[in-house]
Known about the structure:
The chain has helices at residues 2-17, 22-25; strands at 31-39, 50-56, 64-68, 74-80, 84-90, 96-97, 100-103, 114-116. By secondary structure, it is of the alpha+beta class.
Amino acid sequence: MRKIKFFGAILFLYIAFSGNSAFAQGGVGIIGLMQGRITKADGRGVAGVTVSVVALGSCFDWEGNTARTNPFGYYRVYVHYDCGLLVLTSRKGMTFSPSSMVIPIDTNYDGINFLAN
């Protein structure tokens, strides 16, 4: 009985503090991390860029997620690995290359990088 209460408490904390889990998204599928970097041509990271990821087509009622780059230009965002994804970047006064990126299902989700112009 003690073990059941312990594991129940652990499960509750996991759900409560992992707002990007499959439970929080209301659907079924594999949630995982996508990460990359936004840099200028000289290699310096760009802070404060909004990275938006939206699902292409029907995807377990998952609409998408967003993140912002840190002071070194890195971002991490949780996505559905079972979906085709569209990645968009934005920051006032800047353009990016590529302007958007389509990520197919079953691909590498590390190193999704953009260049700020």
